[in-house]
Automatic annotation (TrEMBL):
Its main location: other. It comes from the Eukaryota. It comes from Coregonus suidteri. It is found in: Cell surface; Secreted. Residues 466-732 form the Peptidase S1 domain. Its cofactor is Mg(2+); Mn(2+). Residues 28-92, 93-152, 158-215 form the Sushi domain. Gene3D superfamilies: Complement Module, domain 1 (2.10.70.10), Trypsin-like serine proteases (2.40.10.10), von Willebrand factor, type A domain (3.40.50.410). This is C3/C5 convertase.
């Protein structure tokens, strides 16, 4: 089987026996012969040298069997070794046995159920079917839908409902009164994930989570993880989010909980994870913490990578005291971490937990009062095959003791341990005891590989549950009609039928569920709100109920000075008849000088001023604007300097923010569109509004053709920081039937 180069070379032959086991001098290679697999292929992580992992790949609907990976050992042999009698091949993925329904029938009856096989479920009379009446075997080895259960119509004396029997499982216990217990086990070859034992509580709920039976090749889809992990982590984040309440004198108070949430992330980088997988995993961690920050929480982070030893990338102790690490610094630390050429053959999961335990102990010792208030969330990624450092269970027990302080009942919600098992070498039964057990919340997830993690974390924000956040959007690097709506969910198109039946078009932005911000010059003196139609999101069309132009807007104001059109204060608000429905593709953008925007910029505290926001937002001068022709254009803002003398008289007004130099100019019909800046990738803040341009470079009737700017073409934008009193008067009005924005005091 295996051989080493030295054996085949004369010079080395002499040296070799003396230095046996020293891999540098006596390099060992594993053999590739007879390793191929019927129906699939394999890849090697480090060619054929010691420590390399051979990974088998099968098409969808199939899994590699008997092994999914093999490791090249020091001896030059593969572990596990290939079987002569059981040749390696791609086998069809099976779903666990669905013929476990009590008081009903399952059809069709088969020995085995493969991908795309469909089953239907019916109950005997006197029983009602709960769960799915038909299920399809999915490529991840799970049945679609939920466990079918035939529940007795009378219900009987039972306090809890029949918890059913998941596919592939057996249940013992068939009475469901208070304190009654049911236990589950899975058929041979399947591992139990979830609660092995459930007890009926007085509330009528079962403890724990529904058990599931997983084959080695069963894994959770990105969607399943998104839903389960997303809802669990949101709970933690909401506990840590700042809260507003009104005190007895009616004064609004914000309780900022910065630093009351500790997130410990530990990522397995042992050889069993390939280097490009490592980069994907790193990106996933970055995505996760950026997403977390969009909840307007500022957690403390501990980030470690582990294999046979532990590499600390971000130390949580750096978050104590005055100089808290910022999110940017954490992301930089992650970027700068070099995977390097490590010989990390082992997986010391226990050491990773021990490191976290030590960090907790330091914090607790420093200030126990503070430590008591902190919520701890541990997120582990591992391929599960821990093979050194001992069993982590005792360490996890110590972590629990440290946080619970002998009062588990009271302090239960202060600790969450999540484990993401990556790859098929994971031993579900070893990992299960490590995670937190909570009713109806999963803390253990099994992924096929790390590739989908980033996408999963991108989706953990459930739009419907974070309605209040302005400027939140999805981030995609390509524009299609669908991605545009979720990238720029505040973008509105405005159509106005003027009194003389002529029709005008403008752009606008949703700034609250009730208001659209746009340019004043879009409207004529005789226009009325009911003639304004607004299109937003996928298919919401709304009508205006009130049109409010800035009182100082007067296009003829400087006619006497030879300026025919004067565009200062070119802003308007359209109040809608009703609030729009907020969803993933319809959500307000943040505007300057509001508390909502402070949250988006993660400026916390009562003392934040408008000026601070302005400095932060206008610090970097690359801004973007939304225009109908190309949706978004990036421009470099150049401050007005009188460089174009024949324009300077027209721009003398102090309102104008800037022009965009030698850039794709806006087109007719783009007026009112937002000039904005993205913060942290997930939040958008509007800083300006497209007012006017010196030239119309878009061909008539075809705004979708990209036009190059020329030396004289400039677009001008209204600086929203200069019209805050106007915005505040209407958007901050708390006497009306709409929810007001909270403007800063100064
Ligand atoms: C590969 O398989 C063939 C046929 O079973 C066998 O003769 C040969 O020895 C095998 N080679 C190795 C290196 O195991
Ligand atoms: C179940 O799936 C297998 C494999 O795809 C297929 O051969 C078989 O016909 C399917 N059975 C039914 C009843 O659809
Ligand atoms: C410990 O933390 C509490 C709560 O945050 C704080 O009030 C107290 O001043 C801290 N004590 C020390 C010694 O830092
Ligand atoms: C503005 O100035 C440029 C050169 O600076 C000149 O070519 C152009 O004709 C002027 N435009 C007007 C309207 O005076």
């Amino acid at each position: 089987m295996g051989f080493s180069v030295c054996w085949s070379m004369w010079a080395a032959l002499l040296l070799c026996p003396l230095y046996m086991g020293v891999s540098v001098l006596c390099e060992v290679f594993c053999d590739e012969e007879n390793m191929s697999m019927e129906g699939g292929h394999y890849t090697l992580t480090k060619k054929l040298v010691y420590g390399s992992m051979l990974i088998y790949h099968c098409p969808e609907g199939y899994y590699p069997n008997p092994a999914s990976t093999r490791l090249c050992q020091k001896s030059g042999t593969w572990s596990p070794p290939p079987h002569i009698r059981r040749p390696q091949k791609c086998k069809m993925i099976e779903c666990p046995n669905p013929l476990v329904l009590e008081s009903g029938t399952v059809s069709p009856l088969q020995m085995q159920y493969f991908v795309n096989n469909k089953t239907t479920y019916e109950c005997y009379s006197g029983y009602t079917l709960c769960g799915s009446s038909s299920r399809v075997c999915q490529p991840n080895g799970k049945w679609s839908g939920g466990t079918p259960i035939c529940r007795h119509d009378s219900g009987g004396e039972n306090r809890c409902a029949d918890p059913g029997i998941p596919a592939g499982a057996r249940r013992s216990g068939s009475s469901f009164g208070i304190d009654d217990k049911v236990t589950y086990r899975c058929d041979e070859g399947l591992n139990l994930v979830g609660s092995k034992e459930r007890v009926c509580q007085e509330s009528g709920q079962w403890t724990g989570t529904e058990p599931k039976c997983y084959y080695k090749h069963t894994y959770d889809t990105a969607l399943e993880v998104t839903e389960a992990f997303g809802s669990a982590i949101r709970e933690s984040l909401q506990l840590a989010a700042p809260i507003d309440y009104t005190d007895q004198e009616g004064k609004k108070i914000t309780v900022d909980k910065a630093g009351k949430l500790n997130i410990y992330i530990a990522m397995d980088i042992s050889d069993s994870i390939e280097e490009d997988q490592f980069n994907k995993a790193r990106n996933a961690v970055k995505k996760l913490i950026t997403k977390v920050s969009s909840f307007a929480v500022s957690p403390n982070y501990e980030i470690i990578f582990f294999a046979s030893d532990v590499l600390e990338v971000v130390n949580i102790i750096d978050f104590s005291g005055e100089k808290r690490k910022t999110l940017e610094q954490v992301l930089d630390d992650l970027d700068n971490f070099n995977y390097g050429d490590r010989e990390n053959v082992g997986t010391n999961l226990n050491l990773a937990f021990k490191t976290i335990l030590e960090r907790m102990a330091i914090q607790k010792q420093r200030n126990e009062t503070l430590f008591k208030e902190v919520h701890h969330v541990l997120i582990f990624f591992t391929d599960g095959a821990y093979n050194m450092g001992g069993r982590p269970e005792d360490t996890v027990a110590k972590i629990r003791e440290t946080v619970y302080m002998n009062t588990k009942e009271e302090r239960d919600q202060y600790l969450d341990i999540y484990v993401f098992g990556v790859g098929s070498e994971i031993f579900d039964e070893d990992i299960q005891p490590l995670v937190t057990k909570r009713d109806n919340e999963d803390h253990y997830f099994k992924l096929k590989d790390g590739a989908k993690l980033e996408e999963t974390f991108d989706k953990i924000i459930d739009e419907s549950k974070v309605v209040g956040l302005c400027g939140l959007h999805r981030n995609y690097d390509h524009d299609t009609a669908d991605t545009i709506r979720v990238r720029y969910p505040w973008m509105a198109r405005i159509g106005i039928t003027h009194e003389d039946e002529s029709y005008g078009k403008c752009m606008g932005s949703l700034v609250t569920p009730r208001f659209i911000l746009t340019a004043a010059h879009c409207f004529k003196f005789t226009d009325t709100a009911d003639k304004i139609k607004i299109k937003i999101g996928k298919n919401q069309v709304l009508t205006g109920s009130r049109l409010i132009l800035h009182p100082n807007f007067n296009i003829k104001a400087k006619e006497k000075e030879g300026i025919n059109e004067f565009y200062d204060y070119d802003v308007a608000l359209i109040e809608l008849k009703n609030d729009v429905d907020i969803s993933i593709d319809t959500r307000p953008i943040c505007i300057p000088c509001t508390k909502e925007t402070s949250g988006a910029l993660r400026l916390v505290g009562e003392e934040i001023t408008c000026k601070q926001q302005e400095e932060l937002l206008l610090k970097k001068i690359i801004l973007k604007k939304s225009v109908s022709c190309h949706m978004i254009r990036t421009g470099k803002v150049v401050r007005i300097s009188g460089a174009m003398p024949n324009l300077s008289s027209r721009i003398r007004g102090k309102i104008v923010l800037a022009w965009l130099l030698r850039d794709n100019v806006a087109c007719k019909g783009d007026s009112g569109g937002a000039l904005f800046k993205n913060y942290d990738d997930y939040r958008t803040i509007q800083v300006g509004l497209i007012s006017w341009g010196t030239k119309n470079l878009c061909p008539d009737g075809n705004n979708d053709v990209k036009q190059e700017s020329d030396d004289d073409s400039r677009d001008f934008h209204i600086n929203l920081f200069k019209v805050v009193p106007f915005l505040k008067k209407y958007l901050g009005d708390d006497t009306r039937d709409y929810a007001p924005l909270q403007f800063l005091d100064k």
